[in-house]
Every structure is written in structure tokens, then in C-alpha cells.
């Protein structure tokens, strides 16, 4: 049997890395980096190399996602941390009772985080030293069935995690996406088989099928929403931080979350989720409400079957008929324009209902709802009414079609229709959004986002402070106005709980944020299609904002720059270090158009006038990376570092172009070992990997900073 050459080994490694990045881009980031055909071609090439050279096989290879041989039976394994069920609520009163009980037990305020309750199958993923070791169903809560054979085929679930704690258990929900469910049932009917009744039961049956090829063929999805055992207590101190950390590791997290401080906030989240559930690719049956801080969760504890710090709001429904009189429009925080029905009053679930959501204009067209129709209205729980559809047999001749707005009804700004092909097929429209970032309807949420920790990180400018300022006469009508708040110190001191020390900290936080750099600014503006990662990539293309604006749209469009384009920008020559723009054929034109719009020009001019630094830290770091001795190397940190913590060391090494992972393997280039290093150091010695102590690390970092 032939032995693999160095070129063969390099190609296998390259293909695995590329395919895993493609899986993450598609299933986690929702921003594909290659067409399906190209993905399949690369997967076949990798499978061919693995078949030719069996010694290159790896249980975590992307080829394993197509499914292996059927298993003979299920193994039952005890959960390290029990997987308990969730208590349900059905009304505002239930939520108020739960919140009051929690505050009494905590003896103080509680922050909550809400996310969609996916109608799927609960799953616990256990990673040890960065590798997925098993996936368990809930079972009886104490023990679950090992369904790893099926879960390894789910492309949304990473098989390895770089930089994870030694033990990391992630709980979440497996589901069959709605589109996949329709496809599966169509194929079953065509084959003469009975269609599945609902996605949840089909998903449960898929996981328990002993043939993993069945799971591979059904394109299951996954969203993480909780934790089990975590070996590193410092990994996260709250649910919101935990979700951020595992998202950074490449795990798919909830599509929507809400931070709530009051029952009214929770009700608003229930209302918004109900309005926007049609945008989710899976079925939901409610909203999960949980206490955010883990120390408060521990204080509240659990009953024998469910946590006291967690509750679900379920959506029961009652349906009646009434007359649709007119339609008005509501603009949400993301710019989404939602049609709202104005109806003859009808008594529903104990209250009089005059308004109800119509979800989106695609559904209005699809269900052919017209003004003047007799419509069926449901009210989920005791909160949210919506129009189900018309009673067409009672339609009057005077009924009029509902015409969607082509300009924002609040600011008269331009409107973007989703998806892009909706113009050719109106019924495929899932959302219609105002794309003016200065639209008053969006202002509050934009300001909160801009000031957030992962954007401009303005200490003291949280949600409650912004709400108070907006309710006062202090001008706060744009991002630039944040940097003029120092001109209004006297009225600021008049705000509730705003003492001199707090105001001093707020103004210091605002001043410090001016030096965050271009990437943070771009991430903070709430630009459509531009998140934190894409903002960093865009900033990496140019030394400052003006240079970025000089780049023509086609240059933003490719997933990676060519080597020649990289050289022209003075970027690293190595192809693996090319800058990924994160934008594609459909998204690059939208982003480019915004960056060159009048609204964007006003934003940038205002920030520049306020003294906000619009230079790119990411572009500056390219020169440092290209000269760094660790650029392109895979590094593992182990043991205790005395001069800094591992997080800081990882961040600084990453800025020098290194890839920092959590486990030692044959692909590791360097291990940095401090006191107390254990098995990782032993393995590095066995593999002959270069080992540094902290003194060498500090010498490198000192040189990197001065160079």
C-alpha cells in the first residue's frame, strides 16, 4: 500500500480545515463561503485521499458526517449534570409570580435572558480536550442514550473545538428545519411512504435510528441553549457570557435573545418572538426565560424535576372571526416593517382585541388577506393576537388588496426586501426592512448596540441610562450625540441614580471609546450583514475609513483576496493568511451601498468631528503578523502563566498571527508551558513538539509590541 507524501498530508489537512470552515460559515455564521457543488467536490477529494491512505484517517474528519456503518444498539450513559425539564407558564400572571418568587429568594434584582423554545429534541454534547466524545439524549434526566453516531453527521455541530475548557458540556436542541421537513415528506409521499406528522417526532426518530446515514440525509440543525459540566469555572459567569464564549468556539447559538429586567421586558420579548417566528427556519412552541447569572441560578436551585431559575412561556391559542378594517405599519428595532391589522373589536381570551399582527407581507400575499375581509384571529396565551387568514367564502366585492410600503413609513428611507428574489416571486418575501440606520424607530436599539461591550464598550451607557436620556430633553439623536453628552452634565445629573461619580465614569467611558478603532465602529453601527467578524475583516482591508471607502464594490465581494491583491495592499504573502472579507455576491453590494450612502456619510462625519478614531487596528496588525515568528503557527498554552492570564496571552498571540488551540496534536507547532503543566506537556514531549517557558513567551510579546 502506498505511503502518503508530505504533499498528500498537507492536502488532507488543508481540505479538512477548508470543509470545517465551510460548515461553520454555512450553519453557524449563515454566510456560506463556497457553493454546494464545490463543497461536495472537496469532500469527495478528501474521502478519496483517506481511502488511499488509511493512516491519514481521523474520527473527526468532515467525511464522517456522511454517516458510517449502522450501530447494533444504544448505550445509556449517566449525565454529569442532570438534564431536567422546564416548568411552563401561559400568562403574564404566571410570569409575574415566578419573577416575584425569584427576587424574594435572591433578595435583590435579577437579570433575565430569553430565547426561542425550539420544538425539537434536547441533546447534551460533551467535549473533552476539544474533541466531541459523546452526544446524549435527555432520557429520564439522569441518564440518556448515546446518539453520537447520528450527531456526528450534523454539520452545524463542530467535532473539535479550539481553546475550549478540558471538559465542556453544551446542551441544546436538535431539529429538522422546516424546509427540510417539507422535502423529506415530499420524498416519502413520492415513494409511497406515510409522511411524518411533525418535525419534532421525525427528528426524535432520526436520532434513534441506528443507521447514521439516515441522519446524514435529513440535514438536522442544532442550537445551543445551556450548559452541563464545565471544568473551568472562569469560562463564563452568566448564561449570556456562556453563549458568547461557545459561539466564539464555533457552536450555533440562539438566533434571537432578549436581555430583560422586568416582566414588561419579558412580555415585549414574547410579543416580538411571536411576530418574528416566521423568520426562523424551525418550529417553536414558546419562549424560554432564565436567570442570567450562574451564582443566582445556584441560589435558586432546582426541584426534583425542574430548575427554579428557568421557565417557559407556551403559546396556547383561541380563534374568533372579525372584520379587517385597515392595515398600518410598525417599524421594529432591526428596521423590520410589520403590517398590523386594524379590526372590528372582538373579545378574545378575556380581552377586547382591535389590532393583530399580520407577520410579513409575504404571508399576506400567500394567504390573500384583504382589507374588508372577515378574518380569523388567534390569541396566543393572553398576550399576542394575530390574523390567521381570511374566510374567503365571506369576502365582499369591495375587499381591497394590501399594498406594502416601498418607503419606510417612519422616516421615508429606502426599504430592502428579503429575500433578494422576492421581486420575482412576491410570496417568497419574508421581511421588508428600513435600511436607514438613523431611522427614529430604530434609534434606541441602535444606541444600545453601539455602546455594548463587544462594540464601542462604553462603560455606564447601558439600556436604562439610554432610556432615561431619550425620555429627557438631552439631545441623543445619533451616534455622534453620545460624544456630546459632556456638554449636558447638569441635566445628566438630574437623571435617576446618576450621581457625580457615575457621571464621571460615564464620560470617561465615552472618551475611552473614541480610540476603539474602525472595526469596532463598523460593528457598532448595526449595518446589515456586518457583524463583529465581518467588521474586522473589512477593517483589515484598509488603513483607515477613507481608504476603505475607496475600495470598489467588486473588491469586497470575493470571499478571499487573491495573492496579487494581498501583495498590493501589503498584506501577508502566505495564501492561508489572506484576508477573508466575509461578504459575497448578494451581501457585498448592500454593504458597499450603505457605506457610500448619505446616511453613512452623516454618521462618519459626525463621529470624525467628535474625535472618534477611524483608523484600522486590524490593518496595522498585518505588518506585525507577517514579521512575527509565530505567524501561521498552532500554539497550545498549558500550566499557569504568572505575568498574565491565558486569555490575554491568547489574544496577544492571535494578534501576532498565531492560532491558539486547547489540545496538543501532531499539528501543534509550539507548546508554551507554565508551572503545573501536566498531560499536555507530556504529550508535547512525546511528539517532539517545540516547548517554550513563560520567559520566552514574554520575550516574544515584548518584541512583537515594539516591532
Question: How does this model look, in words?
Answer:
The chain has 707 residues and is α+β, with helices and mostly antiparallel strands. It folds into six domains: 6-66, Helix hairpin bin (Helix Hairpins, Orthogonal Bundle); 87-314, DNA ligase/mRNA capping enzyme (D-amino Acid Aminotransferase, Chain A, domain 1); 317-403, Nucleic acid-binding proteins (OB fold (Dihydrolipoamide Acetyltransferase, E2P)), CATH 2.40.50; 440-513, DNA polymerase, domain 1 (Orthogonal Bundle), CATH 1.10.150; 518-624, DNA polymerase, domain 1; 631-706, Rossmann fold (3-Layer(aba) Sandwich). Helices cover 37% and strands 20% of the residues. It contains 27 helices and 24 strands. The chain has a five-stranded mixed beta sheet. It has a five-stranded antiparallel beta sheet with strand order 14-13-12-16-17. A hairpin with a 5-residue loop joins strand 12 and strand 13. Helix 1 packs antiparallel against helix 2 and helix 17 runs antiparallel to helix 18. The radius of gyration is 27 Å and the shape is globular. 35% of the residues are buried. The model is unreliable at 420-424, 558-563, 571-578 and 703-707 (pLDDT under 50).
Amino acid at each position: 500500500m502506498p505511503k502518503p507524501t508530505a504533499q498528500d498530508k498537507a492536502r488532507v489537512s488543508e481540505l479538512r480545515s477548508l470543509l470545517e470552515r465551510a460548515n461553520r460559515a454555512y450553519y453557524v455564521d449563515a454566510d456560506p463561503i463556497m457553493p454546494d457543488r464545490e463543497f461536495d467536490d472537496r469532500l469527495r477529494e478528501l474521502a478519496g485521499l483517506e481511502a488511499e491512505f488509511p493512516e491519514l484517517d481521523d474520527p473527526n474528519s468532515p467525511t464522517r458526517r456522511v454517516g458510517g456503518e449502522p450501530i447494533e444498539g444504544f448505550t445509556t450513559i449517566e449525565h454529569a449534570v442532570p438534564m431536567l425539564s422546564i416548568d411552563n407558564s401561559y400568562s403574564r400572571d404566571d410570569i409575574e409570580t415566578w419573577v416575584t418568587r425569584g427576587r424574594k429568594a435572591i433578595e435583590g434584582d435579577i437579570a433575565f435572558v430569553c430565547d426561542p423554545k425550539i420544538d425539537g429534541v434536547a441533546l447534551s454534547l460533551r467535549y473533552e480536550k476539544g474533541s466531541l466524545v459523546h452526544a446524549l439524549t435527555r432520557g429520564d434526566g439522569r441518564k440518556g442514550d448515546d446518539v453520537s453516531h447520528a450527531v456526528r453527521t450534523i454539520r452545524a455541530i463542530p467535532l473539535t473545538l479550539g481553546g475550549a475548557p478540558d471538559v465542556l458540556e453544551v446542551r441544546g436542541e436538535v431539529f429538522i428545519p422546516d424546509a427540510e421537513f417539507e422535502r423529506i415528506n415530499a420524498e416519502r409521499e413520492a415513494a409511497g411512504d406515510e409522511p411524518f406528522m411533525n418535525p419534532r417526532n421525525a427528528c426524535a426518530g432520526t436520532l434513534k435510528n441506528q443507521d447514521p446515514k439516515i441522519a446524514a440525509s435529513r440535514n438536522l440543525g442544532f442550537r445551543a441553549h445551556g450548559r452541563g459540566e464545565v471544568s473551568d469555572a472562569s469560562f463564563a459567569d452568566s448564561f449570556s457570557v456562556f453563549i458568547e464564549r461557545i459561539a466564539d468556539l464555533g457552536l450555533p447559538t440562539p438566533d434571537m435573545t432578549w436581555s430583560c429586567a422586568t416582566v414588561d421586558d419579558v412580555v415585549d420579548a414574547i410579543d416580538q418572538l411571536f411576530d418574528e417566528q416566521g423568520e426562523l427556519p424551525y418550529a417553536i412552541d414558546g419562549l424560554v426565560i432564565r436567570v442570567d447569572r450562574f451564582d443566582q441560578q445556584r441560589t435558586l436551585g432546582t426541584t426534583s424535576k425542574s430548575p427554579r431559575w428557568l421557565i417557559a412561556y407556551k403559546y396556547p391559542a383561541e380563534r374568533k372571526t372579525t372584520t379587517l378594517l385597515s392595515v398600518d405599519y410598525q417599524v421594529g428595532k432591526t428596521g423590520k416593517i410589520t403590517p398590523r391589522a386594524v379590526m372590528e373589536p372582538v373579545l378574545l381570551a378575556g380581552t377586547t382585541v382591535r389590532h393583530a399582527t399580520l407577520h410579513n407581507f409575504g404571508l399576506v400575499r400567500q394567504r390573500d388577506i384583504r382589507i374588508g375581509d372577515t378574518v380569523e384571529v388567534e390569541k396566543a396565551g393572553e398576550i399576542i393576537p394575530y390574523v390567521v387568514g381570511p374566510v374567503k367564502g365571506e369576502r365582499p366585492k369591495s375587499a381591497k388588496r394590501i399594498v406594502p410600503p416601498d418607503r419606510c413609513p417612519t422616516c421615508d428611507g429606502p426599504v430592502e426586501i428579503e429575500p433578494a428574489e422576492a421581486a420575482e416571486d412576491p410570496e417568497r418575501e419574508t421581511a421588508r426592512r428600513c435600511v436607514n440606520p438613523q431611522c427614529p424607530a430604530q434609534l434606541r436599539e441602535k444606541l444600545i448596540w453601539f455602546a455594548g461591550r463587544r462594540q464601542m464598550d462604553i462603560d455606564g451607557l447601558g439600556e436604562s441610562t439610554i432610556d432615561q436620556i431619550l425620555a429627557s430633553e438631552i439631545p441623543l439623536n445619533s451616534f455622534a450625540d453620545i460624544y456630546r453628552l459632556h456638554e449636558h452634565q447638569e441635566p445628566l445629573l438630574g437623571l435617576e441614580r446618576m450621581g457625580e461619580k457615575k457621571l464621571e465614569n460615564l464620560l470617561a467611558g465615552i472618551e475611552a471609546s473614541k480610540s476603539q478603532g474602525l472595526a469596532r465602529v463598523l460593528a457598532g453601527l448595526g449595518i446589515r450583514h456586518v457583524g463583529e467578524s465581518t467588521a474586522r475583516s473589512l477593517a483589515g482591508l484598509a488603513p483607515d475609513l477613507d481608504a476603505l471607502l475607496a475600495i470598489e464594490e467588486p473588491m469586497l465581494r470575493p470571499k478571499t483576496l487573491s495573492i496579487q491583491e494581498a501583495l498590493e495592499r501589503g498584506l501577508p504573502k502566505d495564501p492561508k493568511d489572506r484576508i477573508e472579507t466575509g461578504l459575497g455576491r448578494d451581501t457585498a453590494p448592500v454593504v458597499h451601498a450603505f457605506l457610500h450612502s448619505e446616511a453613512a456619510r452623516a454618521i462618519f462625519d459626525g463621529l470624525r468631528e467628535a474625535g472618534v478614531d477611524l483608523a484600522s487596528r486590524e490593518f496595522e496588525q498585518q505588518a506585525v503578523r507577517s514579521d512575527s515568528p509565530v505567524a501561521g503557527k498552532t500554539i497550545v498554552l498549558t500550566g499557569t502563566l504568572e505575568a498574565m492570564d491565558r486569555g490575554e496571552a491568547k489574544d496577544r498571540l492571535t494578534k501576532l498571527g498565531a492560532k491558539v488551540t486547547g489540545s496538543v496534536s501532531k499539528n501543534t507547532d509550539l507548546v508554551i508551558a507554565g508551572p503545573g503543566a501536566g498531560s499536555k506537556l507530556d504529550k508535547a514531549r512525546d511528539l517532539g513538539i517545540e516547548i517554550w517557558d513563560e520567559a520566552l513567551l514574554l520575550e516574544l510579546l515584548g518584541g512583537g509590541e515594539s516591532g
